[in-house]
Amino acid sequence: MYSHVQLNKAYRLLNHGPTILVSSRHNGKQNIMAAAWVTPLDFDPPRITVVIDKSTYTRELIEASGTFAINVPCVAQLDVVRKVGTTSGRDLEDTDKFAQFGLETFTAKEIDAPLLKGCVAWLECRIIPEPYNQNTYDLFIAKVVAAYADERVFSAGHWHFEGHDDLRTLHHVAGGEFFVTGAAVKASL
Amino acid sequence: MYSHVQLNKAYRLLNHGPTILVSSRHNGKQNIMAAAWVTPLDFDPPRITVVIDKSTYTRELIEASGTFAINVPCVAQLDVVRKVGTTSGRDLEDTDKFAQFGLETFTAKEIDAPLLKGCVAWLECRIIPEPYNQNTYDLFIAKVVAAYADERVFSAGHWHFEGHDDLRTLHHVAGGEFFVTGAAVKASL
């Protein structure tokens, strides 16, 4: 179903700017939220930045655990992305978003976090502590320590969505409106 | 041709993760380069982050001027994006990339920078000096001080590319391979 992505190619999972889901676990509590503000920061070692608001339950979990996973969702998961992006795990009594919305997961390898099944790529991340950025800008810098992708749409360092429209990635604009990742084009140079 | 975008809606020009061009001017020297690693950081006041490598001529100009412009290019400009992304303005004698590649510009209003004609959105940015982030991570944080968009594809805070396929935005993967911003979809919730 999925295969490992070489760490020096992991930036290609995010380079086209898809909306992602951040999942986290600490002391048995787990959560998942949508985030559009993620971007690569370096190729090798692969580092990324992600903006996580102070008000979120995810913020509490990732600051406590020092880790999180990035899940790259696809068109088939549009409503899941919206659901986990508009509810707070803190408001759920005796359950979590995974149970609440019937989301299946598998286990991360290098960190303790649930990875969402049905996504097309996953990056396991370890936070590089930068308290000033975190407190001033809600900005987290993290090292990617493992990466995987659904080999039907990403292999040998390249996305290939043709024939898999339901597995295309998503780009959030605002208020539940997204663009689907469209046609591949290549510069003539 | 273009209209002002309210500053609290400026993040929507970048939220879907397009590849952008950074343009800059200082003491009569000007340059433009491609960058994929840009993302909103806050809504209001609008702030963004962008990664600008130390080796680039743009880095020299924006650190000297304290400002830069983000130009959001479109499909019609695919080869321009590639050209300005694979050459250095430092290597051009007695000219610059604008003259070299026949690029027309208009003048920014709040900062001193050339804005590239034919793009579909522009954000004028003033750097918030953070020397540690700049030196350690090549990461710049900036405040958006003015924003515009081509009203054929962005108005009232929303992108609407239907009927304007040549004006769709681009998402770089690697090596001159891009995805075009695809179909609009809306979550059912």
UniProtKB/TrEMBL annotation, chains A, B:
Instruction: Specify whether Transcription regulation is a keyword of the entry.
Output: no
Under the heading InterPro entries, the entry gives: Flavin_Rdtase-like_dom, Flavoredoxin, Split_barrel_FMN-bd
This protein's cofactor list reads:
FMN
One Pfam family hit: Flavin_Reduct
Which intervals hold domain Flavin reductase like?
Answer: 12-165
Reply yes or no: does the keyword Flavoprotein apply. Answer: yes
The entry lists its GO molecular-function terms as: FMN binding
**Gene3D superfamilies assigned to the protein according to its UniProt record, in alphabetical order:** Electron Transport, Fmn-binding Protein, Chain A (2.30.110.10)
Keywords of this entry: Flavoprotein
**Signal sequence region:** none
Similarity comment text for this entry: Belongs to the flavoredoxin family.
* Protein name as annotated: Flavoredoxin
State the species of origin: mine drainage metagenome
Q: Show the taxonomic lineage.
A: unclassified sequences, metagenomes, ecological metagenomes
